[in-house]
Amino acid sequence: MTIQPTGGADSAPLYAPSSEIAENAHADAARYEELYQKSVSDPEGFWAEEGKRLDWIKPFTKVKNTSFDYDNVSIKWFEDGTLNVAANCIDRHLATRGDQTAIIFEPDNPDEAAQHITYKQLHKEVQVFANVLKDMGVDKGDRVVIYLPMIPAAAYAMLACARIGAIHSIVFAGFSPDALADRVNGCDAKVVICSDYAPRGGRNTPLKSNCDKALLRCSDKVKLLVVERTGAQIDWVEGRDYKYEDMAAGVAPDCAPTEVNAEDPLFILYTSGSTGKPKGVVHCSGGYLAYAAMTHQYVFDYQDGDIYWCTADVGWVTGHSYIVYGPLANGATTVMFEGVPTYPDAGRFWAVCEKHKVTQFYTAPTAIRALMGKGPEWVEKYDLSSLRILGSVGEPINPEAWNWYNENVGKGSCPIVDTWWQTETGGILIAPLPGATPTKPGSATKPFFGVQPVILDDKGNELSGATEGVLAIKDSWPGQMRTVWGDHDRFVSTYFEMFKGYYFSGDGCRRDADGYYWITGRVDDVINVSGHRMGTAEVESALVAHETVSEAAVVGYPHDIKGQGIYCYVTLMDGVEATDELRAQLQAWVRQEIGPIAKPDVIQWAPGLPKTRSGKIMRRILRKIAENETDSLGDTSTLADPSVVDDLIANRANA
Ligand code: 6R9
């Protein structure tokens, strides 16, 4: 059985789901239409029903209370219901699937044995972890920062927080001590959880020692809980540091779930915006979990017995919603992979799919492009017949990568779900449903239930039919973020100010004649490097923090594997010599300040930057130069000194 491309309304090929997939899926085309219509014509009724997919301690009577009105932005779902998120992800499955595997842990080193953790074991581990946190003084509403590799303890720690009503904030284990300290301080965390080391791709990141450095910049009340991963040597600060294994041996085995309100925060996740300071995106308990669970079930067509694998890291929102919360709320078996796609070789993903008989595989275009470059032989070595559905997330997937994924990994018979969403949206907003939506390579296709995308012009007018503009959403959905931690005004001004009455996504988008959505990338100063979001301002402020740098401007440029690369224009202090050595130093500096993902790909020395007479850097021009589109620079006459542009073009670095 092969999926045959047939023509859509435009020239893009259209891949219809096979009848076998459509018949067995949670939704076929007719069902999608019916449910979608209901979800937008009667959101109250639709979500009242969907809210029941969770176990409530006190059932909700109010469903939706949301306003996108600029003067009164407020989002509440199921607001008078109470529940416990960990009980929904674990306890309620015990009677029916206690011995089923909840988490398959696949370590970085393929010679190390995988672990199969059942729901019963997960229940035990999470209760003990919760009691350890309580012992350390963590109460309902307190913040806990988690800085862990992709090991089961990361899931235990998240669920332990949820069990006692504490709010977790995960910091990606690839972030630097400075980035970690900013986030610990930003949410005023009581406890930080780390491991001794983080094995990844055969290397070992010293997480404990990173914490030691970070905590020098934090309140001395912050406690550090250290989980053992490798057992290698670490330093110890008496009175501040707690060894998890010792603590766990001394606590009670049972911990009753704490009752929380649907609108109590479940987690904070810091993400980049167009200004320098990351925002603490707040997600709450009830609506988020219902939405994560529902999207996981429908978009991946999750069925009992499936082995679902999302290759993201729990440090990103994809790991929150689609490794831990969504799958576990659905009683699924979810794979946690500690490693990287190319270690020990470029066949690792497929080796893991074969080994665990993975049915749904969800990854990022950057990984696909990297593996594509290694040749199809790495895929062909493995038996991938267990795969049923493939997913993509993080950035637009280019049709070449889509086709390669479809032909080599899916063997032409696995629907590809290209899922568009954001840290802010909590769950998938635009994506095909495997049994319902014919796909087009490069399009995220159609909205999920309850989601009303609109395309606006730059004045905020809704455009109809086939068109292009910015992507906004017309009404709330339960997984939506509620606020920016500690700064509700920033929440309102970032997402609701520019286009009144809508949630503004920050993405550009095209809609074709079939009503399909094609995301064209960010329209703000956010760049997307290997699927990781980064504010150009963050890289700029790291650069100017270096003693030799007087000014810096950073833009994205097309990069074959990463999607976008980081291109920096740097003006040095008077008297500093521009050498290749200094260039390497600055690259290392940014890497150390933010983390390896932020390492500049290109640094071009810029004796001057193109500025308007009021002193604003004209990034549009810098972007064009970085993209090597110097013949379409547009109007440069408003520049204070147009000659700087000629110099930048003449000395353009070869990216
Ligand atoms: C889930 C996640 C969000 C930004 C988003 C957009 C880009 C994500 C995409 C996509 C095209 C897709 N993005 N998925 N662009 N097609 N399927 O990635 O969250 O890290 O917050 O990034 O990523 O630009 O605005 P986050």
How would you describe this structure to a colleague?
The chain is α/β, with parallel strands linked by helices and 655 residues long. The chain has 2 domains: 19-510, ANL, N-terminal domain (Rossmann fold, 3-Layer(aba) Sandwich), CATH 3.40.50; 530-651, 2-Layer Sandwich (GMP Synthetase, Chain A, domain 3). The chain is 30% helix and 24% strand. The strands form 10 sheets. It has a 7-stranded mixed β-sheet with strand order 7-6-19-18-20-21-22, sandwiched between helices. A 5-stranded parallel β-sheet has the order 9-8-10-13-14, sandwiched between helices. It has a 5-stranded antiparallel β-sheet with strand order 24-23-25-27-28, with no helix packed on it. Helix 6 crosses helix 7 (152-164), helix 8 (177-186) crosses helix 9 and helix 14 (365-372) packs across helix 16 (399-409). The two termini are 43 Å apart. The mean pLDDT is 95. Residues 271, 316-318, 392-396, 418-423, 444, 505-507, 519, 522, 528, 533 line the site of ligand 6R9. Keywords: Acetylation, ATP-binding, Ligase, Magnesium, Metal-binding, Nucleotide-binding.
